[in-house]
């Protein structure tokens, strides 16, 4: 495993981060609460991740209606002190945790939700806290000031932003500079071989300001695993049957994507000893030094195998360019 400090902090994370969005539910959708992995299955995945060297867990208060955080907290209670002290916890807030709950990033709401997160995780201080979405109803100054207050009172060590645009990030930096506030230390947006071109500007901004970048959905909802076969129905329980909306653009360009995947298999066989296309996709992201760590959400312990492949694969610049050029500009 590789490890790296994030942003300007002293927080060292594993460059592969365990995404826990399917613990006790499928993401933040209330209609899918109690689906996904049950607690026993979640603990098996956590055990396997730690065995691989993963030290950083990514969750959110709304994942599974709080169940994801609770499962992680219960798992930590079973760990010996050495393991527990090595774990870096990252959570997010914005979405409703239960039907009828509020959403957003107001000072009042964040101040309330952080206490629930700390309680479920069984910790007095959260290492990393993120805004899960941007809140158009709340002034950014209010949100940033609240995160700073949480730092000062010791409830969080650092904060970042997920699903933020380049314009919003630049605005947040300007606000923090003007008000003398600590700023977002990293960005967490979807990034993979299929959409990397639209992420390039964000990576440049993060590099300019010394911010971290921890992309999620590095396998594009399963499209870069090869499990979706042309002309066949999607696998039951896959992202394309549970939450297809973020990936509908890939359906529109599926012929070009399938051609790219076939070429990718050929490159894998010729240059990398026939590793899986999932492993090669992850290796491509890890080969970019601007990426602090990638978030991967395995549904079973065996789904961690592509990570092993990626960590043992080195890509040169020619490899990176060749792989990127296999897919259409979306």
Automatic annotation (TrEMBL):
<dbReference type="GO" id="GO:0005840">
    <property type="term" value="C:ribosome"/>
</dbReference>
<dbReference type="InterPro" id="IPR023210">
    <property type="entry name" value="NADP_OxRdtase_dom"/>
</dbReference>
<dbReference type="GO" id="GO:0006412">
    <property type="term" value="P:translation"/>
</dbReference>
<feature type="domain" description="NADP-dependent oxidoreductase">
    <location>
        <begin position="36"/>
        <end position="318"/>
    </location>
</feature>
<comment type="similarity">
    <text>Belongs to the aldo/keto reductase family. Aldo/keto reductase 2 subfamily.</text>
</comment>
<dbReference type="Pfam" id="PF00248">
    <property type="entry name" value="Aldo_ket_red"/>
</dbReference>
<protein>
    <recommendedName>
        <fullName>NADP-dependent oxidoreductase domain-containing protein</fullName>
    </recommendedName>
</protein>
<dbReference type="InterPro" id="IPR050523">
    <property type="entry name" value="AKR_Detox_Biosynth"/>
</dbReference>
<keyword id="KW-0560">Oxidoreductase</keyword>
<dbReference type="InterPro" id="IPR018130">
    <property type="entry name" value="Ribosomal_uS2_CS"/>
</dbReference>
<dbReference type="InterPro" id="IPR036812">
    <property type="entry name" value="NAD(P)_OxRdtase_dom_sf"/>
</dbReference>
<dbReference type="GO" id="GO:0016491">
    <property type="term" value="F:oxidoreductase activity"/>
</dbReference>
<dbReference type="GO" id="GO:0003735">
    <property type="term" value="F:structural constituent of ribosome"/>
</dbReference>
């Amino acid at each position: 495993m590789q490890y790296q400090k994030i942003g300007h902090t002293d927080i060292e994370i594993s460059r592969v981060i365990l995404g826990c969005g399917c613990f006790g539910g499928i993401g933040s959708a209330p209609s899918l609460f109690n689906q996904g992995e049950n607690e026993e299955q979640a603990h098996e995945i956590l055990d396997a991740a730690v065995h691989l060297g993963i030290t950083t867990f990514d969750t959110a208060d709304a994942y599974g209606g709080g169940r994801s955080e609770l499962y992680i907290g219960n798992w930590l209670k079973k760990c010996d002190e050495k393991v527990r002290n090595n774990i870096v916890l990252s959570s997010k807030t914005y979405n409703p945790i239960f039907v009828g709950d509020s959403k957003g990033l107001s000072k009042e709401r964040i101040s309330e939700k952080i206490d629930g997160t700390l309680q479920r995780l069984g910790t007095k201080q959260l290492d990393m806290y993120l805004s899960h979405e941007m809140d158009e109803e709340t002034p950014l100054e209010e949100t940033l000031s609240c995160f700073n207050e949480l730092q000062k009172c010791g409830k969080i060590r650092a904060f970042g932003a997920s699903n933020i645009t380049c314009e919003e990030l630049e605005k947040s930096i300007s606000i923090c500079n003007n008000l003398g506030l600590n700023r977002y230390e990293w960005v967490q947006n979807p990034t993979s071989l299929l959409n990397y071109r639209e992420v390039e500007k964000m990576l440049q901004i993060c590099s300019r300001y010394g911010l971290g970048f921890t992309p999620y959905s590095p396998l594009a909802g399963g499209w870069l695993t090869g499990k979706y076969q042309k002309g066949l129905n999607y696998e039951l329980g896959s992202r394309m049957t549970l939450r297809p909306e973020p990936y509908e653009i890939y359906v529109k360009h599926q012929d070009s994507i399938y051609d790219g995947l076939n070429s990718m298999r050929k490159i894998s066989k010729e240059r990398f000893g026939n590793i899986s296309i999932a492993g090669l996709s992850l290796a491509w992201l890890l080969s970019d030094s601007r990426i602090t760590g990638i978030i991967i959400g395995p549904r079973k312990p065996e789904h961690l195998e592509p990570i092993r492949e990626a960590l043992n694969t080195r890509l040169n610049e020619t490899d990176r360019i060749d792989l990127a050029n296999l897919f259409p500009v979306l």
